[in-house]
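Board notes (copied after class):
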Amino acid sequence: MARPITRPTWSVDGWTGNAIDDDDTAWFVHTDAGWFGPVEVRSDDTDRANYHGTYSTAEQWRTARVITLTGMCAARTPERADRAVNTFNALLSRGAARLVVAEPVLTKSAVVRKVAAQLERTSPTRFDWQLVLTAADPVKYGATLRASTSLPLAGGGLDWESGRDSVTRVNLARNPVGWPHSTVQWLPHNDKSVSSSSEYTTAIPGVDAVQTTARATCTAAGPIGSRQVVPGIIAGRRYVVSLWARHTTGGIATLSLAWHTEAGADTGVGTGDRIEVPLNTWGPWTPLHLAADAPPGASAVTVSVSVASAEVGELLDTTALLVEEHASGTTDPGPYFDGHSTGCAWSSEPWGSTSYDSPVGLDWSGGLDWGAPASTGSMVLANSGGAEVWPVYTITGPVTAPRLYLPSTGETLLYSGVLAAATDTTPADRLVIDTHPHRLTTWLNGRAERYLDEAEWWPIPPGEDVRVAFGSADPAPTSATAEAEWAPGWW
């Protein structure tokens, strides 16, 4: 394999210029003409008989691209020099081949023929050479691109029962986390606390929004905190209580529950209704949650979060509160609590708002997404170059009267025949349509030339893309496919 000496390198028919070949012979390209510059424009103008100027043709066609390379070959021995001479003289002797030029940035190519070649020996191991090539198609092409599509297939439409099997949780507390522009219903824990609420751009992990917070301010040394009464409790059931908190100096926070009857009478202690958690020093938030079983007779619960020892001016902030009957019976408050979980939903109705591990039913906010089709039956072909290019399309059966067309203009390539499906012994029929103006051919299975019933050829314009649709006369979609192959082009 040739080893590049510098860029650009020029490779054609097994030979590479500006490289060292497998015989350890160096091929240097000293000058190149016709590749990097523009090609000439053909003019068919006719002189005007009775006035200045000419009659100009509407189209501006380009001439063929002529590439002239000159250089020097240096071999290590006379025998290797002879082999290099033979290699050079045999270049492109079998006809056209693709010239690949590794430019300083991009690699481009063109199909070329040899017009002329010269060679002059300057020593037993060296010779100067010149190679003149012509590209009938003057466009230089980049890397090959491909796109494919099947026939249009409908999607699943709307799932009207979406998430119906997911766990449903009801937040019994007012103002669930993530519901801004509201007042958090916390009261002072004791006479040494002053309670207030505000909106706060939270630093809670995973939650990037404005949230409501409650703040307890210490007015006298001692315990401070906030409390909230939550109705709707059913005796004997397990509840999960969750919130986030932070303290000025990072004290020990106590999250506790006191159960009540409808009349407000104390029903006693439930199971697991108190925890103590060290809070982070002011700044980061700490999650607190516990699971507790409501004792007999309980119909409400007072949730308190407090710090046992605080100095005047210290602050204890809490987020809105989540109190829910936990469906799974564990102490996990649910993946949506910290805002990390994808596909989880909060409702903003207080006193019984419903939240889900994943959405139940359809989310109508912002309109309905009726679902993506299984196949659009179309493909997008983009040309990043500065010259128009012409794709090659391959249609694979089974399909009846396949057609390719531009939805934007209606231009169509239609084949009225039938492409058969694959069998145990034969592959599916393949129809190859080459749209390049130099060829304009249609081949069935690579052997039999066919003709299109409609042949409205179109290019991919420079710097643009086109959407090509695939259709057929079949009453229902088949497994047929259409593939496009093209490359960006430059002058």
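Comment from the instructor: The chain has three domains: 3-48+58-138, 147-153+374-490, 170-326. DSSP finds one helix and 39 strands in the chain.
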